[in-house]
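== Sequence, structure tokens ==
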Amino acid sequence: MSESAITVRYAKALFSLAKEKGKLNQLKEDMELISDACSHSEEFILLLKSPVVKTSEKTNIIQLIFQEKIKELSLQFLELVIKNRREHLIPSMCRSVLTLIRKEKGIKTAVITTAQAFDQEFLDKATKILEKEMGTKVELAAKVNPNLIGGMVLRIDDKQYDASILTQLRKLKQEMLKAQL
């Protein structure tokens, strides 16, 4: 079985159990916390992937890190994943669970990429505008890419709206090259 199929199977099982127990909001918070730990700590990822560290040691470390921070259901899930030697898949399992929860709650994800960072006030206003236009809750993440020069790129689920100066310059260059032919 492929790793992506395994990831989805574990994610669906955890999602179903949390939904049955009415704990989707708690699960969402826990998965976001675990996902943040995975994305911000290279040492944590190395620990999960290490074949040298024993399963019992990994379980103890997970308990030390998360015991006071996440609910029992999420902690038991992590322990089960480690016991089944699938701990290297924890980051992708978290992403899959979060995707299922967002889908269940009708939450759209959006990423706005700009050349310069914006303050939280701007992001809050942009979120409200997107929610009004889309008629659903939106979780907006911000990224900075100085190569854009100016403008922005907005990605909502699988759609992308590119209003960056970089793209406009590329289009202009292509038109000029076509005109030369």
In short: The longest helix spans residues 3-21. The chain has two domains: 3-104, 106-180. The chain has a mean pLDDT of 95. The first strand starts at residue 108 and ends at 114.
